[in-house]
Amino acid sequence: MSLSASCESVSQKRTLSSLLAGRVVKRPKQGDGQHLHEATIQLLEQQQNICSLLREVQNPDLCNIFCSHNGEQKQAESEGISSAITGSLLGDLWKWSLLTTGVPHGDNLTLTQSNCCELQDVLYCLWPAGGLRRQASHLGVPVAVLSVKMVLDRLMEITGTEEVKEEEDKRRELLTSSQRVQLCVLLESSKELLSQGALCPKVLWQEYRRDQRLPKLEVVYHLHFYNILTLKYILESDEGVRLWLVSQLKALCGWTPPQGEEETKQVQQQVLSTVASVLVGTGFELSHEPAAADRRISLLCSSVLDDMLFWLLDTVEKTVTLQSAGTGAKLWIQIFDVSLCGVSVSGDALQRFFTHCLTQTLTYKPRLTVSDAITLQNEWTFAKASRLLTSVFCKLAVIFSVEQLLCHLQQVLETHEVNWKHVLCFLSTLLVYNPCAQPSVRELLSRLLSSAFEGYDLENMITAFLLARQGALEGPGIFPSYSDWFKMSFGGCSGYHAANKKSLVFLLKFLSDLVPFEPPQYLKVHILHPPYVPVKHRSLLMEYVSLAKTRLADLKESMEDMGLYEDVSGAGGASVQPQCQAVQDVEKAVSLFESTGRISATVMEASIFRRPYFLTRFLPALLTSRVLPVKADARMSFIEALKKADKIPAAQYSSYVESCQKQRQQDRSMVCSDTHDDPLEVLKIQLQEFTELLVGGNDGEMSAQLSRISYTLSVIFPGGPNDLIGQTVISLHINTPLSPELHVKAVNMILRNFCQCLLDASRTNPPNKQSLWASRFVSVLLGNTPLLSSLMHRLWDLFHNQWSSLSPAHLLGLGAFVVHLHASTSHGPLVQLIPPILPKPVPIGEALSSALFCSTHTNMLFCVRLCVAAVCYGICRGDSQQQQQDYIVSSLYKKLLYLIPRLLPEARRTPITAAGPVSESQEENLAGLWSSTTDTSSTWRKTAWYLWRHPAFCQLEHTPQYKLLFSDWLANELRVQRSEDALSDPERQEYQQWACLELYLPRPEEQGGCGGDMKSLCSHLLNAIMNQQLSSQSLEKLDYRVSETGTCLPDILSRLQEFVYEMEVTDLSGSRGSRADVCDFLFELVSEKCSSTATSASPSISIELSLEHTLNTWNRVLLALPAVLLIKVKAEGGRMTLECNNLIEHVNQHQRKVCSPAGLLSCHLTAHLLKGVLCASVRCGRSGEEVNKAWSQISLRCPLLLVSTVHWWERLSPVLLSLWHRLCDGEPVPEQLQRLTDSQNWACSLRRGLPSSPVPAAAALVLAASLHRAWRGCGCDNQDFSTALKMLQPEKGIQYRQVLVFLLFLCVSDHLSGLLYPQEKSHQKARTLCNDLLPLLVDSGDWLLIFKSNEQGVYQSITMVTSDECTRLMPWAFYSLVLQQSAELLQRAMCCPGFLHTAVLCYISLLQLFLEGYTLAPENQMEPFQILSHSKQFLLRAISQTPPAALSSSQLRQLESQYTDLDPEVAAALSVHLDPHSLSPEMDFL
After folding, report:
1. Could you tell me which residues come within 8 angstroms of residue 1153 by beta carbon, excluding any fewer than 6 positions away?
2. Dihedrals phi, psi of 733, to nearest 5 degrees
3. CB within 8 A of 743, min separation 6: which ones?
4. In angstroms, rounded to a whole number, what is the distance separating the alpha carbons of residues 520 and 526?
5. Based on the number of CB atoms within 10 Å of its own CB, is 399 exposed (0-12), middle (13-18) or buried (19 or more)?
6. Counting beta carbons within 10 angstroms of the beta carbon of residue 630, is it exposed (0 to 12), middle (13 to 18) or buried (19 or more)?
């Protein structure tokens, strides 16, 4: 191209070279050299322009002297200037330049190569346009032509200085520092020429490109930067530049500057960002009416950017990690940073560019089909995706909202063929970097499903399923599991498919089409959680289920591997391995067995209906070899129960036992990882990187790093996330340490990193000003159940056993960790402690708080420090009261309510009051609280005292779940070990009195207090004391040290004594103010307690033991209370009388059931009750008379107390008579008490065989009990006592007969006690005495009445002596005694009235006992079943020998109806031998 076509100032057609070659120059004379030298110096001193001067007087080639690279001076041409003159001239010029710059020089200074270049730069800086114009005029060429020639020549010299070096070494994409300086000087001068119209940019570019030369990209950048030649103009004017530009960009991105050239790195970034800005601005700026040229250049710029994006995406396919990608791709990704390329580009253009790039990325190389996406989707999670790809998505998404991004995604999906891998990775990146994106994604899925079912559109349908599954793959902390989404969308009658049959068919057809490509875990979800289908269309669903099961069978993924408790992972990538599922089933089954004591129905059903899974999966997981504990644990007991139920094959069980024995002899094997890289090292690096990101404050990158950490943890803790129906329950074995060393190290690493992160984050901001890093960190852990289980075990061990090794920083970090675990309770699992010290599974925070003991001084100090740290963090983390409640664990808060007043007496003087609304100084309060918590110089006392007065802490105490109830306070206090308490005995007494009387007594009942009622206060104390032993037993499971030292039970018992006495003496009970109220209150309370314990209609052993414990504890309390409170004194007829109804009812209903031995109260309890009667009688006018009346009531209605009194009278009489004389000085002993003494003397004289003394005027039961006591205490043999009994002939009178019958009952009770408790040696004597008594009574029917509990009569009350269990066993005792008698005595017995009826009823009762499984110890080498057989034979013989008149027709019909089902043989015998038709009419009425 000629210059005339490019510059209007050029009219000649000659080239620049020809013009310069034809210049005519004046030739100076040879003798003018000296003169010229002097004139030059003079000009320089006058600061004249050197370049202009040379152009006027010399050939332009002379300028080459200054530009020479080899430093040699050129020979003067035809002008005649000699080499000496030239050298002299250049030397003077150089000296002048040094003088002007202030640099000293010597006379020997020579003009070197570098000096010449520097001089040239000086000359160009002083180069005015005027000189060029004069020179151009002198030459006869346009000034633009001359300036272009000079600029191009110099430009080529600058950029071509290192061409040789570049050929030898690797190609350099940017200029050197010296080249860059020279180029900038040149361009600065050129810019000056351009401003004065002396330079034409178009001519400059045309001349440069004339020989098809292309500059380096940095040269173009500098031309653009100095506004000499813009990149846009270059692109518009030269079509060949496009390919060159793309190659230059790729080369520049892939080139790494030499080490140490920081300036070059900055220039590299500037070049790329500037070029990108020009391309974006030109390609995506909108104009109202763009011309064709503008549209062309816009498309050209867009295509360049597309080529670079495609190059980047190609790199993505080849690399996985960001580090392996090299610098090229990473550099180009940086140009998407808004801060770099958005400076010179409008916001609209930038949005259009990012939208265009996002579209291009999502649609790049759409080779993958939908079936490929379904199959490979598990490999496209965020953690597994290319870091390059996720970085691109992050850069492109930063300026858009989540809604905009999802809307664009939907538009792309509807209008383009997409790359499914990129689409799904984009969704994962969006969810990971934007935790708030979940609702928007769910809304998108809802729109897609609605659209799909409205138009039966398969594309929207498959899109929704793929997106939902992709979100679920990122874990429950980011998106709901697939099964939850599927159930929510299709599990109910309001699902998208439930509108009509067509929609249902559409869904099932869609699911069926997916079956050949579905991963097995999704098929399992569809089978276990099928879509809602009306009954009439059930067959359609069954067709799909059958197809899915067939596919699972083809994949060798049997439904048997799904586990017993539906532990299906639909969100964790590959499905849970069958072995892992079986392990989870075993843990759940063992947990259920431990809590219920029975093998769960699920396990029993699986052993029958799912036998393959039971034998090949469940049992191998259960029978894993281990070192068996000395004491059987729940797992061992469960295995034994299965073995007894014949559910474990004998060979498999034997193999298990052998392997366990071998296991005991060798060390446990280490847990190994299958990965080439050590997962612990990977986790360590990832956690360190997370800490660095936290300090940098990059939330998006932190979320991304947490996803990678989650993936690494899934390698260390395999098993996949849980996807249960309901909430997951983790078994926390509190006495079992973690065994795999790998797990221990990983957990320790996680906890240390969390503590470090908290410290780093807290250095700059309080918790409420920090990001959500901690919540996201914990959410990652919650998604992995094995990991969470290991964490729980480690935290429990730290809190319970290793707390002394924790530093304040550890306490702060672990406290915050527990807070965030608690805050995730809504979607976190529950924890079941094993042994079950808590009755049911509880949230994580509550479970961990139970590891904190408050029983000793050291325990209390650790507990209060940890709780202060956790509660302070929770308060500072929440900005409102509701948020604070979400973060604060109620049990930790309650521990502070208990401990702070206990350890800080000043807190008792500053009770928590209801604070009003938080003031504007809330931020100050929070900042002060947090600084007090984190201040290393502060003590826990200062922090606790600050917290105690903090408004937010005070507000929480008035929230129901954060109230420390009086019962909770008492339970805590009763666990304190007195010998290791932080308080001395006087201090503890003062503290307990303050808590009871000042804190809880006036507090309203709805707030956990007593409402000012002393009754309520005493009721709480009494309940706590009675519950204390049960709680102590639970704590013994937790820590054996609890029972080694005494608790504060004596202190609380002392408080109860104080307050009951105060209620009695000062009438503070709040009702009528009489002692009767105290008596009623005490017995009503214990009655309610016993009733609540024995709630079952069919009492079990556990209920009986619990009732026994309750009453034994109550007896301890009762003995500590004043005896006078147990007897009610009331006014009747103008006088005070004793009322023993409460006492009698209590003994008959409750004490009778727990006597040991049966039928006998303890001596201490008996004495205390009688003391109460004597002491209360003093309040009456006639004490002796009231005592006699009371004893008469006791004799008639409370035979147990009567028998016990007679039994212990030898020990009681001195105490009671001494008390009577103290209370009623001078009054005679009450008659009834005297009769007790007389009866004892009579029985003793009878035992010793003395002459018969008159029978005392005492009740028959008193006499019988006296004889029984004399017999049990006698040292003589039974023969002497039998002789003594013959003196009591029943023929002498009814009283004698009653005494013998009562005595027989007492002996039979002893005999039963011997059968129930074989260790007692007295049952042989009891049976012998029964054998001696039977001949005396056999002719009378009275003795039979003691075996009929439902018969009314004089002997009815005797049944209230012994326990209900003994009463049930009276039929056993009947046959046990009868079968040992002689034939003669039995014949006499059969003739006794009512004998057959009694024998038949006893046999019925005996048979029912056997049917209920009740057995006794063998008696006389006879097994229990033999007794039943012999009893039946005796009964059949008695029926055959008894006359028909022995039973009335009504009795016979009743017995036949009972025997028909129980024993048809006996019923037939009754019918045959005792035919009711043979009875006379006179007898039928009987």
Report:
1. 1104, 1107, 1108, 1111, 1363, 1364
2. -85, 105
3. 671, 716, 717, 790
4. 10
5. middle
6. exposed
Pairing of strands 830-834, 729-733: parallel
Predicted pLDDT of residue 858: 92
Rounded to whole angstroms, how far apart are CA atoms 485 and 528? Answer: 14
The amino acid that residue 555 corresponds to is L
Residues of the chain with pLDDT under 50: 1-31, 44-45, 47-127, 162, 164-169, 321-324, 566-576, 667-676, 720-726, 914-920, 1035-1044, 1068-1074, 1076, 1096-1098, 1476, 1478-1486
CA–CA gap between residue 365 and residue 1402 (Å, rounded): 92
User: Looking at residue 672, what is its pLDDT?
Assistant: 37
Provide CB contacts within 8 A for 1159, sequence distance 6+.
1200, 1203, 1306, 1309, 1313, 1361, 1362, 1363, 1366
Query: How many alpha carbons lie under 13 Å from residue 724 in its C-beta half-sphere?
Result: 20
The label of the residue with tokens 């003394």 reads 1253
The Cα 574–Cα 562 span in angstroms is: 13
Q: What is the mean pLDDT of the chain?
A: 78
Sheet holding 842-843, edge to edge: 729-733, 830-834, 842-843
CA nearest 925: which of 901, 906, 953, 905? 953
Whole-number pLDDT of residue 872: 92
What distance in Å separates the CA atoms of residue 1406 and residue 1408, rounded to the nearest whole number? 5
Three-state SS for 104? coil
Return the closest-CA partner of residue 173 out of 250, 238, 228.
250
DSSP annotation of 624 reads: -
Would you say how long the chain is, in residues? 1486
* Closest to 1233 in 3D by CA, of 1253, 1208, 1216: 1216
Q: Cβ–Cβ contacts within 10 Å for residue 960, how many?
A: 9
Q: Which of 587, 659, 576 is nearest to 621 (CA)?
A: 587
Structure tokens that stand for 1411 in this block: 């049917």
Contacts of 172 (CB under 8 A, 6+ apart): 162, 166, 255
Alpha-carbon distance 403 to 444, whole Å? 9
Q: Distance between CA 1325 and CA 507 in Å, rounded?
A: 83
Task: Give the dihedral of Cα atoms 709, 713, 716, 719; nearest 10 deg.
Answer: -150
Give dist(CA 193, CA 187) in Å, integer. Answer: 9
Is residue 1298 a contact partner of residue 1354, using CB atoms and an 8 Å limit? yes
Q: List own/partner pairs for 86-89 with CB under 8 A and 24 or more apart.
A: 86/62, 87/111, 88/37, 89/36, 89/37, 89/40
Identify the pLDDT of residue 93: 38
Q: At residue 997, what is the residue type?
A: L
Nearest to 1370 by CA among 1146, 1159, 1196, 1155: 1159
Residue type, 481: S
The pLDDT, as a whole number, for residue 630 is 55
CA-derived radius of gyration, the chain: 52
SS3 950: coil
Yes or no: say if 943 and 933 are a contact pair by the CB < 8 Å rule: yes
Q: What pLDDT is stored for residue 257 in this prediction?
A: 85
Provide the strand spans (E) within 1312-1396: none
For the chain, how far is it from start to end, CA to CA, in angstroms? 146
pLDDT of residue 123: 42
Q: What is the 3-state secondary structure (H, E, C) of 449-511?
A: HHHHHHHCCHHHHHHHHHHHHHHHHCCCCCCCCHHHHHHHHHCCCCCCCCCCHHHHHHHHHHH
- Residue 1475's alpha-carbon distances to 1042, 1440, 1459, 1463, 1485, in angstroms, are 70, 12, 16, 18, 15
Which pLDDT value is given to residue 1052? 92
What is residue 1419's three-state secondary structure? strand
